[in-house]
Write a structure and sequence with these properties.
With about 100 residues, the protein is α/β, with parallel strands linked by helices. The protein is built from four helices and seven strands.
Amino acid sequence: WIEHFRKNITNNDCLSDVFGPYIPLLAPWTDFWIKKGGIRFPDKVLKILRTDVPYITVSQNDVGLTLSDKNGSKIKFDNILVLSAGGYGHVPVPLLIHEEPLRKK
């Protein structure tokens, strides 16, 4: 997802032209989940995320963007808009890895 999306952004594009008021969090959330048994945010990342800034991200994980700190405590960010193909998030999106041909009846 992220790699395909990045190809559509040029060096001349301004983030606000592409994402509007949101700051994108482009991360392979499902890979993090599989490797670590849950999404753990590094302390450095937690320190730079702000509560007064709207963020946007995409997740295909079936539990959406469930975040925890290094101690396993759940973290809730009300300012992260989650586009989710896993059924848990704010905006549902189809889970497609590539364009599918139309099926004939």
